[in-house]
Amino acid sequence: IAREAAYAAAAAGGGELLCLALLVSGDEEAVSRIRDAECITIDGCPKLCAVKNVEATGGTVAKSIQVIDVLKNHRGAELGTATKLADAGWAVAHEIAQDINHCESEVK
Q: How far apart are CA 31 and CA 54, in angstroms?
């Protein structure tokens, strides 16, 4: 859901995407893009890897979206699987994307 939300936000003109694996591995280009930048993170699980790695790299988390918090409003929904979302899963992804695009004008 987090990945699809990021893709949907970007497709709607919402900012730039950065692969978390590049940041974690210390990729110079990824680190330079994050350092001193305001970022919107989407974490798919409670471990907050996106938040932690943006902060560790010198970026600022302007908004943190945790999928688990969004899912509280969709209890009992059939979301699908990690590899194939059901309609309800796509709806949650698009809800998150709209949230990102709504707040993006405030993030520089």
A: 9
Structure tokens given for 49: 């890897």
For the entire predicted model, the pTM comes to 0.87
Confidence grade of residue 103 (pLDDT, cut at 50, 70, 90): confident
Structure tokens, 48:
């907050």
The SS3 of residue 65 is: strand
3-state secondary structure of 35: coil
Angle between helices 87-103 and 2-11 (to 10 degrees): 50
**Rounded Cα–Cα distance for residues 39 and 28 (Å):** 17
